[in-house]
Amino acid sequence: MLIKKPTDIRPSEITPENLYLRRREFIKSAGSLLLTAGAAPSILLGRQEEEFKALKIAKQGEYTVNESVTPFSYASTTINYYEFSMRKREAKERASSMKTRPWTIEVEGDVKTPKTLDIDDLLRRFPLEERIYRHRCVEAWSMVIPWVGFPLREFINLCEPTSEAKFVQFFTLLDRKVMPGTRIDVLRWPYREALRLDEALHPLSLMSVGMYGRILPNQNGAPIRLVIPWKYGFKSIKSIVRARFSRKIPPTSWNQANAREYGFYGNVNPKVNHPRWSQAEERRLGEGGRRKTLLFNGYADQMEDLYAGLDLRRNY
């Protein structure tokens, strides 16, 4: 059996059904916005992958997998970024209008002192490393991507959460002028995700500013995003502009939209099926056939202590 190309994957396979049925409303709204607003060039560099600026990588990161890397053509076009489009390839085209400088991250909540962090200051502070991670989406397809960034725990420590903080919530940029999807209520905007603080501090958690040795393309979450490789892709939030620390579990976008299909944890688990399909197998993009899904996406050895005693079926 040959693997389907992204353009051959049925929309009902890659988009939650209740959202897929509203695609006509979304496309109409997006088209109107583009006609009135136009498409400004990215403040970074060009749209083509060869034009994206190379990053200075200080070292090879921990837990890098020894597997064939997914071609960039898949990783840069098989995108879920509903702020721009519910069609993966359209997200790439429309995201080119998003400006990624200047860019800051607001830090608030249970922290010693609220602050504003500038991305360029972060890049000067933290040496960049490359980590080749498995990436698994809840729609049952997967990739292997070389990410470039710095440990999320370094960012967390810089934020100085108080001893009462147990969770950290992140927010994506909300810019209705360049993000057509935010003009309708596909989700509750801005997009938000969250982790337990011990998950955020885990050595595998990465704050990414690049991929394939170069800066992040806009559609992949430029200029800064999370990469949490043992969780489904919706947990790795893109284009972060705010971090909020809290004592209680905070709301997350997909869990709010459909808690039956999207749990708070979002851990990859082949024994916990999606209500509409099995999670026991996956399709690695760029390869033929199917492969078995691995618990925690193959990082189970690193997760033993983190989830000791937790019912993984109830806390999915």
Quick synopsis:
This protein has 316 residues and is of the alpha+beta class.
Key features of this structure:
316 residues, alpha+beta, Sulfite Oxidase, Chain A, domain 2, eight-stranded mixed β-sheet, 10 helices, 13 strands, 21% strand, globular, disordered N terminus
Can you put this structure into words, describing what you see?
The model is unreliable at 1-50 (pLDDT under 50). The protein is built from ten helices and 13 strands. The protein has a single domain, classed as Oxidoreductase, molybdopterin-binding domain (Sulfite Oxidase, Chain A, domain 2), CATH 3.90.420.10. The chain has helices at 11-14, 17-20, 23-37, 72-75, 88-95, 119-125, 152-159, 197-200, 253-257, 300-303; strands spanning 59-60, 104-109, 115-118, 129-136, 141-151, 167-172, 192-196, 206-211, 214-215, 225-227, 240-246, 281-284, 291-292. The strands form two sheets. Strands 1, 4, 5, 8, 9, 10, 12 and 13 form an eight-stranded mixed β-sheet that branches. The chain has a five-stranded mixed β-sheet with strand order 3-2-11-6-7.
Number of domains: 1
> What are the secondary-structure elements, in order, as H or E?
HHHEHHEEHEEHEEHEEEEHEEH
Taken from the alpha-carbon principal axes, the silhouette is: globular
Q: In the CATH hierarchy, what is the superfamily?
A: Oxidoreductase, molybdopterin-binding domain
Output the structural class: alpha+beta
Q: Can you name the CATH architecture?
A: Alpha-Beta Complex
Total strands: the figure is 13
Q: Profile the largest sheet.
A: 8 strands, mixed
Query: Which percent bin holds the helix content?
Result: 10-25%
CATH C-level name = Alpha Beta
Radius of gyration: 18 Å
Q: How far is it from the N-terminal to the C-terminal residue, by CA?
A: 30 Å
Task: Provide the CATH topology.
Answer: Sulfite Oxidase, Chain A, domain 2
